[in-house]
Amino acid sequence: MDILKLKIANVVRRFAFKEWGGTETVIWNTAKCLRELGCNPEILCTRALSHVEKESAEGIAVRRFPYFYPYFPLSHDNKRRLDKKGGSPLSFKLYKHLLDNEYDVVHCHTVSRLASQACKAARRKKIPFVVSFLGGRYDMPQKEIDEMDRAVRHSFNYGRLLDHFVAEKDFLSMADGIICVGYDEYELTRREYPDKLVEYIPNGVNHIKFSGAVPLEFRRKYGIAPDDIVLLCVSRIDYQKNQKLLVEAAIKLKSSGEKIHCVIIGPVTADNYYLELETMIAKNNLDSVFTIIPGLSSESAELMSAYKAADMFVLPSLFEPFGIVVLEAWSAGVPVIVSKVGGLRRLVKDGENGIFFDASDIQTFIDAFYKLKGSPDLIKSLKANSLKMATENYSWEKITGKLLDFYRKVIEKYES
User: Fold this and answer.
1) Which among 364, 354, 406, 151 has a CA at the least distance from the CA of 270?
2) pLDDT exceeds 70 at position 167
3) Cis omega (within 30 of 0) on the bond before 294?
4) Which residues, 6+ apart, have CB-to-CB distance to 54 below 8 Å?
5) What pLDDT does residue 4 have?
6) Which of 6, 15, 26, 187 is most enclosed, with most CB atoms within 10 A?
7) Which residues, other chains included, contact 105 with Cβ-Cβ below 8 Å and sequence gap of 6+?
8) Contacts with 217 (C-beta within 8 Å, 6 or more apart), sequence order
9) Angstrom distance (rounded) from CA 125 to CA 123
């Protein structure tokens, strides 16, 4: 088989251009690189958050299928919560599409019921089945699990009955290859599946895209003073991302006379948390020092401008499998302050390309802020080291090369 002519079915829970996150970023950028190499990647997903049945962007087909969550009763609001985060849908039309069309590889970017259906289809078609772990399988905090379960807490899960008939329940044991974006998850998965092809393939970044935006444009649009220190956080607005820490930090820094402005950009995946965040800001009279933008396209010029306008990038996550936004900040030349959790512990080298703090101790963040503010030489060093790291190790071309090589290994083992 010509590895550069692969037809790849990328199966994912949802793929909406207006509701962007790390999963979408990985699939989209690797698909573009694969297409440039001669492959034919397609994106197959449910109609969650987008009802456009079929579209093509940059030559890549995106097909969306009807779906449902096997819970009763399930309100419209709770269905939308599952669409945004944590849902485990079934889609018989997507499953049928996999059976009716010819692919060389089925690559599933979810571990929900769709993965079980995709695995079953791949087995019937006698083609390799690959799964990507995008984080959270081993280290998701219980509070996060409880929050995701809230939408179906008082519903009957009849999916347990359907699973016996429409899916491969143990799809991970049947997978021909597993990809992990987090190194900790990679090591744990290798131990759990010692006889399986398991590969660590981190996320990537288009560093050129983040290097040319005009910084003044963003400040001017949102009325941010030229001498304000802009703290930028780009991530889903969600309990996991812990943006409330920025509010706590702003209270302390403002009372110390610091001129700061906090910018939070990201889609809302936990409505209650968003409301709590806004309430906390208003209660502490911080409206003038906060700008919240609930979602910008990853291709948005405004997002690029926000990065370039920032003085410091902050990621206060309670857990983080990788942290693709750190690569974006590096590429934009913004020094990063991140919580020492998950994949961030491997990605960031403290004092070399970023600064760590403890998400459970606000004082450690305040200390990191002043460490950066008071050292222009440190800022210069962090910027140089992080840009070098982003360009040399995390370009999408390099990441896609690793992915294509993994497909080759999987196919060779499958056909042997």
Assistant:
1) 151
2) no
3) no
4) 61, 62, 63, 64
5) 83
6) 26
7) 6, 7, 8, 9, 127, 128, 129, 130, 407, 410, 411
8) 305, 309
9) 5
Single out the residue of 192, 35, 3, 15 nearest to residue 114, CA to CA. Answer: 15
Q: Which residue has the tokens 């990201």?
A: 266
Amino acid 324 reads I
Collapsing DSSP to helix, strand or coil, 343 comes out as coil
What's the pLDDT score for residue 40? 97
- State what percent of residues in the chain have pLDDT above 90: 72
The number of residues in the chain equals 416
d(CA 333, CA 311): 9
Domain boundary assignment for the chain: 3-204+395-415, 215-393
The residue-averaged pLDDT of 405-414 equals: 96
CATH of 215-393, one of 1.20.1260.10, 4.10.410.60, 3.40.50.2000, 3.30.1660.10: 3.40.50.2000
Amino acid symbol at 283:
K
331 neighbors 353 (Cβ within 8 angstroms): no
| Pair 244, 270: CB distance under 8 Å | no
The CATH class, in words, for 3-204+395-415 is: alpha beta
Segment 26-53 mean pLDDT: 95
Going by C-alpha positions, the residue among 111, 113, 123, 128 that lies closest to residue 172 is 111
Radius of gyration of the chain (CA): 22
Q: How far apart are the C-alpha atoms of 248 and 238, rounded to whole Å?
A: 16
